[in-house]
Design goal:
By secondary structure, this protein is mainly alpha-helical. It has one domain. Helices cover 86% and strands 0% of the residues. Helix 1 runs antiparallel to helix 2. The longest helix has 40 residues.
Amino acid sequence: MLLAIILGLAFGAALTWPLSRRVVARVAGRFAPSPQGRRFVAVCALVFAAIALAPAIFLAVMSAGSLAGSLARRVAAAVGLEAAWGLVLALEIAGMTLLTLIVHVVFGAGLGALAARSLGSVERGSGAPRGAG
């Protein structure tokens, strides 16, 4: 079961990388007009993904011992692969890890875009009232 947890976490994190790059590129391209804003969106998404690793590991370990473990055995038996229930468990953990990380990446990219837009509007303003000179 430990091997299934490790493989599931590694596979889920590996699947998250290309998908999160696309999400961050779309959010940054649409909501952050400047290159600094796009970098800020990417950094926020990276920070939130790093923070999300702790809940992803917790969910993987807890679910492997409870619901997902019994579900993996049932799914493997239904498919006819009773001996490969660890592989089914690893796929379930990978899906859960992928979902957890992508949700946090999207949330981080959204907050980064919001912050980049608000910082961009502050940088563009000179502080003087319009028409004062």
